[in-house]
Amino acid sequence: MNAEKWSLIEGLVREELRGLPEESHDPTTGHPLTVTPFGPDEVLSAIQTLLSTRLTMGERTRAFEAAWAAWCGRRFGVMVNSGSSANLIMLAALVETGRLQPGDEVLVPAVSWSTSLFPVAQVGLVPVMVDVHPESLCMDPASVAAARGPRTKAALAVHLLGQATDMDALGGLLILEDACAAHGAVYKGKRIGGFGEASSFSFFFSHHITTIEGGIVVCDDEDLANSLRSLRAHGWVRERSDRAALEAAHPEIDPRFLFVSSGYNLRPTEIQAAFGLVQLGRLDAWVQRRRANHAAWAKTLAAPDMQVFPEVPGTEHAGFAFAMLPAGPRAPIQAFLQAHGVETRAISGSNLARQPAFRHVPAQTRVPLPVSDAIHERGFFVGNSHAFGPAHGVRLAELLDVWRKG
Ligand SMILES: Cc1ncc(COP(=O)(O)O)c(C=O)c1O
User: How far is CA 188 from the centre of its chain?
Assistant: First the structure.
């Protein structure tokens, strides 16, 4: 397209999307779960991608993978169409490469997301439910110790709502990270996503940055990365670095259709990668704003009848969302907040062992889950966003005071 035509398109898009991404938000207008986190730069990049007519996974995806891996301090990134898919191929690759055997147990925090838990069982591993710590809402070291048995080989550290898991408690286990909601969180000076044999992230709309839908697995081992690449795309050899050797070992099969793993098709599109490449430039500043909000709100909102979850010492909280645990029933508080424009929701999947779907999951529940139960029954969260500020915490505190006065 010539420069004149492009400048016409660019002008129209910039005019149409003026003010986006939302960089600030007035708390007197409400407190949504999230705001529109992209603007003309992302949309123009998507349009350029569309006009290139190269839409299926290609150069842009590879560029995003390299950039994300570098940001995490990892060697490899394998992008997929969601964080859930990232968890699925991460767990499948661990089994396929023999790092875990079918039937091995994997510790999973009871309070996590549905698709943190389900893929563990889907690839033939046995989830063992672990209670969460009352301050971090991530796996409780005491519960980890109690839940471990002779067949326990791995732990899936789900860094809930941006809080880093206590990684020291997982010694002797193969560590996997679900960092889908913890972009930029830090544990003892090291960025989350750098601890796991493999680690997953989500780029869904409400996350720290977005590719619309999207996710990625990062790791350092080339063999594991190759397995992830095959599992992402039909099980074939095409994106593997050891492709030539595999093709040579099977000269009788058309190399374009040489299948070496029982894979899926979970590929992202180039449009998602185009979004991600622009969003990456916003990431560090946005994480800092979420962190600042989390710290300020934790001070403003803590009360004898309302537990909040400040950053745990030794960690940096990534401020995905702001969790609250009232002493009494949550429903009247949520209804009051909703009536005043504050959106609330349950804390992730709450205690997954109490979800109807749990009957389909061959999991072990051999330790008590009292904190997860409390979260399940009374917990809720409000949204955090780079566009929000300390004033959102002040307004929430004011509203809660009005509610307390009845
Ligand atoms: C901890 C955790 N894991 C996995 C996911 C799934 O990610 P996605 O929505 O991209 O599939 C989420 C989604 O928010 C999450 O919070």
Answer: 20
